[in-house]
Every structure is written in C-alpha cells, then in structure tokens.
Sequence to fold (372 residues):
Amino acid sequence: MDKQAFIEKIAAYAVKYAKKYGNKFPSVVIAQSCIESGYGTSELAKKAQNIVGMKHKGARVSIALPEVYYKDAAEQNADGSYRTVKNDGWYKFKNWEECIEGYYQFISISHYKKVWEADSPEGQIAALKAATYWTSLDLDKRLINLINTENLKRFDKIDTPLISKSVDFMGKKSAQRTEKICKFTPHHMAGNMDPVNCAIYHRDKVEASANYYIGNDGTIVAGVPEDRRAYTSSSKENDQQAITVEVANCSKEPDWKISDSAYRSLVLLCAYVCDKYGFIPKYTGDKNGSITLHKMFKPTLCPGPYLEELIVNKYFEEDVKKAMKNTNITEIEHVWTSGDTLESVAKKYNTTVEKIALDNWYPRERQIIVIR
Ligand SMILES: [Zn+2]
Fold:
C-alpha cells in the first residue's frame, strides 16, 4: 500500500470515529498513524495492528484484544538522548479500524482533557505532547509538518458550519449583482482585525466591503450577501463576477503573513464557492483567471506577498481542488477556430452545451473548458 492509499484508508476510520467520540480534528490521528507506523510497515502495525503506538494501560481501551503484545520501546529523554524500555506492553487489535476507535478510547480520560478542548489540530498535538502521549522531542513538529504537506486538514470538516457568523450590511456598500459568479478574489486586511469588526467598519465607515471576512483564528464571517457585488477590488468588472474575501494578517509589512487557520478557512471557502457556482480555481497571472488579485486592478500590495506567493505558485488552487467536493471535473484546453459553435464544441467533447460551464474569458482564442 502506498502512502496515499494508507492515508485515505486511515482517514475514513479517523473521520468515522472522530464523529462518534466527538473529536474535532481527525487529521491528528491520521498523521500519528502515518508516522508511528511508518505508513503501516512497523512491527507493531503488522503484528499487533497497533498503528498509533498505544502502550497497554489495562481496560481503558475496551475494543482492544485481551492479549498484550510485548516489544522493546525506544523513549527519548529530555536531554535528547534515548533509553530502551525492555519488553514494554502494547495494545493489540483485530484490525487498524478497531485500533483507530481504540485511540479515541485511550484519550477519553481526564488526563487528556485538553486534547478535546483544543481548537486546532496544532493545539491538539500540543496537548498530546504535554500529556506525554509520546516522549519524542520533535514528533509534534513532524506531525504538524505532515498535516500541512498532505493537506490532512481536509478531513477535519466534520459537520462544522463553514460560515459561523454574519454581519448584516443592510444593502449598504454593495450593488445588485448582474454577472454570473465565476471568480474568487482574496484580499488582505493589512492588519489583524477581528472579522466582525472589519465588516462593521466597512459597512459604517469606509467605501469598501467584501462578501466574506476571515479572522486570524480562521473564523469566517459573511458580509455582503453573495447575490450582491461588493466594493473590494477597485474593479466593477471583477467584483461583479467574484466572491471577494478580506483575510486578517498575523504579521505586518513586508510579508503580511496570514495564519495557517486563516489560510485553511480561505481554502475551504474557495472550495465551497467553486463547488456552488461550478468553476475551477485557476490563477492565470491576469484578470482572466478565476483566481484574481486586487493588485491586477490597482497599484497595491494586496493580497500581500505571503498570500500572493501561495497563489502565484499554484499551492492555493491545488489545496482548493483537494478540498472541493465536486471533483468530477475534466479540463480541456480548446482552441477556438472560426466556425466553432457551442454545439459543435460540445459534440466534439462528447458532452452537452449545458454541461460545459464556460469560463468568463470566452470567446478568447484559447480556453479551458470545464466539463462535469
Ligand atoms: Zn485588497
């Protein structure tokens, strides 16, 4: 089984039992399984079906098999040196699925209370470390790293509403939308504002607004309703076609960074918008792409170098695609030639006119046609 297949398999169990036991961040146990078991290749994984390195603590894990598996344990000391614990006892399971359920039983004691109270995967990992689930000094960093590189946070979307609050704009700082939504434009607040306060500030004080506001902790606040166009990007043409978002910064100039939580929310929000309006995230470097930037329309740094780099290097759109539900999308680059009609193009790709969601830069010479 390759790494990706292992992740998908464990993720299915993790999401199922995180739901059952009320844990918010299955990404954590997925990452632990990958690292602790070497993607299912360790001795414990093979002989005891224990992929999360759970030491035997008696009846705490009721789903475990009655027998105990014995093997040496390598533990790290606070000074970084290692010691070996001879013949340590480990839980044994029937299969990996029961091991994942066992994991949630294992941490369902007051000693791990802070793990359940954490409001991010990073917080959950810090709480596990503080409770000495493991003794490795750098495992926390490796887990967070893996969660980010494999985008494991996509599995954390368990029944939590994406948009948790809204500010009523009362029809202000917006206009009727007359164009189809086919773009997404992330902006930066150039400051670390509370998203509700930023929306209210826009509504009541300045000539600016956005459809959504994302706070430093990842909270998404709805502002100008989606069916109205906001005043965000210094371009009527863009804002008529875009869902626009203001994101809080966690650092000042020159980088204008945004937090991982804010980035995650931005990815999920973009995925939601793309799914809902039927377009794919694509940065083309100019205003014709479906991901556009404020700086394309006005001399500004917006969305700030940090976010701009993630977008320009396509990390953002790749993350969004992974988070999208509607993945049954084919992209075909079609070069329009004279005589082409929608009907003839649809016929050529064995689809229907209705199924071709035309991007807004039609009828440019080269066009990505999206078929779902
Ligand atoms: Zn902007």
In short: The longest strand covers residues 82-91. DSSP finds 13 helices and twelve strands in the chain. The first helix runs from residue 3 to 21.
